[in-house]
Amino acid sequence: MPEWLREPNPEGERLQKVLAAAGVASRRVVEQFISEGRVTVDGRVAELGQRVLPTAQIEVDGIPVQLDASKRYVVLNKPTGVVSSMSDDRGRPDLAAFTSGYEERLYNVGRLDYDTSGLLLLTNDGDLAHVLAHPSFGVEKTYVAKVRGKVTPATVQRLRQGVELEDGPIAADAARVTGHSGGTSIVELTLHSGRNRIVRRMLDAVDHPVLELVRRQFGPLRLGSLGTGRTRDVTPVELGALLKLGKQGAADAAGTPGRRNAPAGRDEAE
């Protein structure tokens, strides 16, 4: 944690120093940003030389800046055969194996099924994790599924228009087929639902059971070429987008609780 956060100056620290310490840019470039009116502090356009306290809400080009360097944000490509928890009372492999190398005590944001691989966000930022994982907010997620059978354009249209499940109808925000091979198809689905095992149940409902499932995207985070079982730190650009998403979710929750009328509970949307 930066020294100015541990022992803050009661008058605050200069804004350009704070933003440079947060990794936004060099102090000279930050000063240019401030002069151009691209920086706000607590919703007001900042001034060059302005002092700020650790509690200040600072944004650059409308993107929030995380001032607390003790917060950690990590992307994990979770393998199959791993439970989405830090310990398992049944002795199955868990996420502790992937977090033990970090000084911070990290926790997973939401869950992926035991048999599902792909992107999980790990963090020690409890406030952000609470917003992003809550089903009522509904972070957009993209999955790639290998399914049995040849998926037709008509089936893709059904997924987009909505299918009826035992707990109510559900429609994909986006759906497409990316390939066929040997009696199987590759389907990409994007949706914001937090309902349990929703992707598997949607594809079962259109008679194409899932054989393999990977989450490729969670909000602004993309899995990219990250290997199975590997981790990486969230980039500054990704972090800004995550913080903006979390701010939006917190504001929506305060203004219109349960805006998506989603059921409460664990986020295990695969």
Structure description:
There is one protein chain. With 270 residues, this protein is α+β, with helices and mostly antiparallel strands. It folds into two domains: 62 residues, RNA-binding S4 domain (Structural Genomics Hypothetical 15.5 Kd Protein In mrcA-pckA Intergenic Region, Chain A, Roll); 200 residues, 2-Layer Sandwich (Pseudouridine synthase), CATH 3.30.2350.10. The chain is 26% helix and 27% strand. The strands form four sheets. Strands 7, 8, 9, 10, 13, 14, 15, 16 and 17 form a nine-stranded mixed β-sheet that branches. Strands 3-2-5-6 form a four-stranded antiparallel β-sheet. Helix 2 crosses helix 3. About 4% of the residues have low confidence.
Total domain count: 2
Q: Helices and strands, in N-to-C order?
A: HEHHEEEEEEHEEHEHEEEEHEEEH
Q: What is the terminal-to-terminal distance?
A: 36 Å
Number of distinct helices: 8
CATH architecture assignment name of the largest domain:
2-Layer Sandwich
CATH superfamily membership of the largest domain, which one? Pseudouridine synthase
Content-based structural category: alpha+beta
Spans with pLDDT under 50 lasting ≥5 residues?
257-267
Strand content: 25-35%
Rg, rounded, reads: 21 Å
Count the E strands.
17
The helix content is: 25-40%
Spatial shape: elongated
A few lines on this structure:
This protein has 270 residues and is an alpha+beta fold. The chain has helices at 3-6, 15-21, 27-35, 96-99, 126-133, 153-161, 198-205, 236-255, and strands spanning 13-14, 39-41, 44-45, 51-52, 58-60, 63-64, 73-78, 107-109, 117-123, 141-148, 163-165, 168-170, 174-181, 184-191, 210-218, 221-222, 231-233.
